[in-house]
Amino acid sequence: MATEVIADVPAMLWARRVDGKVYVYRSVLVREDHALYAPVRDVLTKIEARLVHRQVDDDVNMMFHQAETLWYHAPDVSDDEVCSIAEMAWFLGISLEGCIDQLVRDSLLIAYDDGTYLPTNYAIQSGMLMPRERGPMS
Known about the structure:
This protein is α+β, with helices and mostly antiparallel strands. The chain has helices at residues 38-46, 85-92, 96-105, 121-126; strands at 3-9, 13-18, 21-27, 50-58, 66-73, 109-111, 117-119. It is 24% helix and 31% strand.
C-alpha cells in the first residue's frame, strides 16, 4: 500500500492517494474548479473515482476556519471497503485519541465506561461507520 502525495498546501489543501482510494482535506475556500484542486481533479478523473464520504468541520488551522473531508473510491473499491479509525487518524494527521474524541462529539461513536466504543445507530444507518465483520475463530 503505497501512499501518493497529490497535494500538500498548508491551510488550504491536503490530498493523498492509496491504491484506489483518494483522501482530501481542504479549506472550504478550495472548490472543485480552483487551480489548487487541479491535481486532485486529474487523479479523480484518471481513476474514475466516486465520492463516498463528505463532511465539513471547523478547523482554525484552515483558511476560513472550516475544512471539508472527502473520500473517493475507484470503481474496483467496494463502498464497504473503508478505512479503519486508526487509518483515518493517520491520513488526517491527528492522534487516534483525537480522532475518536471527534467521532464521539459527532455522535458517531458511543463511549462506554469500560473504555470501549461502539458505532451509533445513526453512524451505521448513514454508512459513515460500519463495524468490522469478524472472521472465523481459529
